Predict the 3D structure of the following.
Amino acid sequence: MACIAVINQKGGVGKTTSVVNLGAGLSLLGKRVLMVDLDPQAHLTYSVGIKAHELSKTVYHVFKGDISVPEAVIERPITVRLEFSKKSEMKGIFYILPSSLELSGAEFEFGGIAGREFLLKECLTEAGKFDYVFIDCPPSLGLLTLNALTTADEIYIPLQTEFLALQGISKLLETVNVVQRRLNQRIKLTGIIGTRFDGRKRLNREVVEKIKDYFGNAVFNTLVRENISLAEAPGFGKTIYEYRPDSYGSEDYFHLCLEIIERSKKN
Ligand SMILES: Nc1ncnc2c1ncn2[C@@H]1O[C@H](COP(=O)(O)OP(=O)(O)O)[C@@H](O)[C@H]1O
Ligand SMILES: [Mg+2]
């Protein structure tokens, strides 16, 4: 099992979009995938068509100890036809551990208890077997992100291929280092996802080079292009493969999934 925290304390860089479409894509490729929505804004939950505000069983209730993970997890089937992948119809099921606004009080509610950094890790031990677990982090380096970092073995950082892409990264890496030393020796930065790429812009190409200089092999070859369909799909509660199967976004995220599987074979 690969447990991957998708983090960047900057908002709007493509964390949630990446978790949804990597998770869904890997499920279409036959993998068993759990996506954990650790953001109180519940964007991931809403993005796949689940009304977070109507839920009474979420990751918050799991943290409180009221219910177990399997009681809160929601099954989400997906059927698509992707022209570019030659296959005819593809089917999958992915699993969501949903979030809710109540999680926004987590810092205060759970901040004072012993073992507060390990709430998620403890809960997930009873989650069942998955090939991939993706944790969608909130845009901060607070207690919730810390919980993701103690639980995961790998970190993916999405970076917008724009001016200031690397701003704040040293702070993020410093946090990862502290976690590595004190709380979770297994954690490793294994993936950098370049998002919102526009190959026509020189600046974008230059930023990608800079990112590659900084992170080397961790950078995925597949860049996710700027694509309006990716921004529209969540409003319909659909993954990109369901909303616009023939879009750049669909193609890019699917290729990224194939690259992830290739990498797992090598390790
Ligand atoms: N490649 C892309 N092209 C166009 N819009 C994108 C792309 N990736 C993300 N977006 C949009 O940008 C916004 C921020 O993305 P999101 O995944 O929510 O970021 P984060 O979770 O890091 O805050 C969302 O409206 C999303 O739909
Ligand atoms: Mg998000």
